[in-house]
Amino acid sequence: MGRDWIQFLAKEEVRIEETGELDLYLQTEEKQLLSELTTQFLQDLRREFSDCIKAFNAYRGEQRNTIKIYGIQGTQSDFLVFRNSLKLIVAFERPGTIGFTFNSLQGGVKSGKKLDSDLIEVNLGPFNEGIWKFKNQVVHLQSIVRYYLTEFIRNSMN
Description:
By secondary structure, the protein is α+β, with helices and mostly antiparallel strands. Helices cover 41% and strands 30% of the residues.
C-alpha cells in the first residue's frame, strides 16, 4: 500500500482547517482506503499474471499461440489477458471490488458470450489491512492467478 495514507492524512487536515468541515463518519477515508487497496491488489495481480504468462510462453517455446497481457486504456490498473480470441478481463469494479470476466471473440466480432463477472471483495481487518474474499472465503493472490490462468489456458487452446 505504500505511504499514500500519510499524504491523505495531511491533505485531509488541511481541508478541515480551510473549510471547517469535519467528516465525523470518516466515509471519505474508508472509500479512499478501499480504492487504494483495490488499485494496489490489481497491480499485484497484473505483476503475478505477467510473471506466470512469461514463464508459460517460455516453456511452450514457440511464438504461435503465445499469451499476451495488455493494460486497458483509460483505467488506472485494469488489464486483460488475450489468446486465440479469448479475453480474461480483470477490472476495478468499484472501491473494494475486482471483477474477473471471460469474453470470447468469434470472427473478430464480440460474440455476445460475455459471462457474468466473478467478484472478489476486500474486507478491512482490525488495522485497516485488506483481506480479499470470494463468496465470503478468504483468497490469496497466487491462488487467484493460478485458478484464472489455468481456466484461461485450457479454454484458449486452438
